[in-house]
């Protein structure tokens, strides 16, 4: 008989306006770590509205949330509210102070920054918001996954799966990570070569920036500067 693996507590922050794949992609991978116990934490246990037209019910509120071994903050347009909410930032500070790993996906890194958890760290975020990292004392590193000590940040949305596999390899070994990758058939072959500004059509990039990201990034910069 073998001993059961020690519980490894994974805490995801949930908030209205979350990009659900920032959360559900890594969760699908990380939940398969031996001993993993996943907690989804929000200010209150009520449906959290995602960006995809459906809601997620958190498993715990901040007060009852166990201490994380791995803290993960997803991103989404709701990040603008998160970085202005002192109760949420206090929760991140408290959890981050004792977590073995402090992590984020997409603009979740801005929430880590607002909580003071990126000072002096190399980090990344969604490509449209990386310039904001320096406002929190962080240095942007151009990579899909960036590790600096116990702080691991991922780029936009789908990079959360790469991040999660990277974390699994560190915690449980590469063979476990590869087994999870195989079980999920994570073998991306996108139909278009348009997944990053470095390779996308410049006209497409300019239109997307004008339509969505320039205003969002400007609004976030103004909020950060006022704090």
Structure characterization notes:
With 227 residues, the chain is an alpha/beta fold. The protein has one domain (8-190): Class I glutamine amidotransferase (GATase) domain (Rossmann fold, 3-Layer(aba) Sandwich). 37% of the residues lie in helices and 18% in strands. The strands form 3 sheets. It has a 7-stranded mixed β-sheet, with helices on both faces. Strands 3-4 form a two-stranded antiparallel sheet. Strand 3 and strand 4 (55-56) form a beta hairpin. Helix 5 (159-172) packs across helix 6. The radius of gyration is 17 Å and the shape is globular.
Q: Trace the largest sheet across and list its strands.
A: 5-2-1-6-7-11-10
CATH fold call? Rossmann fold
Helical percentage: 25-40%
Rg, nearest Å: 17 Å
What top-tier CATH class fits best?
A: Alpha Beta
Number of contiguous helices: 7
Tell me the fraction of residues in β-strands, as a range.
15-25%
Please provide the ordered H/E string of secondary-structure elements: EHEEEEEHHEHEEEEHHH
Overall number of structural domains: 1
The CATH superfamily name is: Class I glutamine amidotransferase (GATase) domain
- Please state the overall shape, judged from the principal axes of the Cα atoms: globular
Distance between the termini: 55 Å
Give the second-level CATH assignment, the architecture.
3-Layer(aba) Sandwich
Let me know the largest β-sheet: 7 strands, mixed
Which parts are unreliable, with pLDDT below 50 for 5 consecutive residues or more?
Answer: none
Q: Average pLDDT value?
A: 97
User: What is the strand tally?
Assistant: 11
Structural class: alpha/beta
């Amino acid at each position: 008989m073998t001993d059961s693996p020690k519980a490894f507590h994974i805490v995801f922050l949930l908030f209205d306006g979350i990009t659900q794949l920032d959360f559900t992609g890594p969760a699908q991978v990380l939940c398969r770590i031996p001993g993993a116990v996943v907690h989804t934490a929000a200010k209150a246990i009520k449906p959290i509205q995602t960006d995809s037209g459906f809601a997620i019910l958190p498993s715990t509120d901040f007060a009852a949330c166990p201490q994380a071994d791995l803290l993960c903050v997803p991103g989404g347009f709701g990040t603008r509210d998160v970085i202005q909410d002192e109760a949420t930032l206090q929760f991140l500070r408290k959890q981050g102070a004792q977590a073995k790993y402090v992590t984020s996906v997409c603009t979740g890194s801005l929430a880590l920054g607002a909580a003071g958890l990126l000072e002096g760290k190399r980090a990344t975020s969604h490509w449209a918001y990386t310039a904001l990292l320096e406002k929190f004392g962080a240095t942007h590193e151009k990579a899909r996954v960036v590790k600096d000590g116990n702080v691991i940040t991922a780029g936009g949305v789908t990079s959360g799966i790469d991040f999660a596999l990277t974390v699994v390899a560190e915690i449980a070994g590469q063979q476990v990570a590869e087994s999870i990758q195989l079980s999920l058939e994570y073998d991306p072959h996108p139909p278009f070569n348009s997944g990053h500004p470095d390779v996308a059509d410049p006209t497409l990039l300019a239109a997307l920036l004008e339509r969505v990201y320039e205003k969002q990034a400007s609004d976030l910069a103004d909020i950060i500067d006022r704090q």
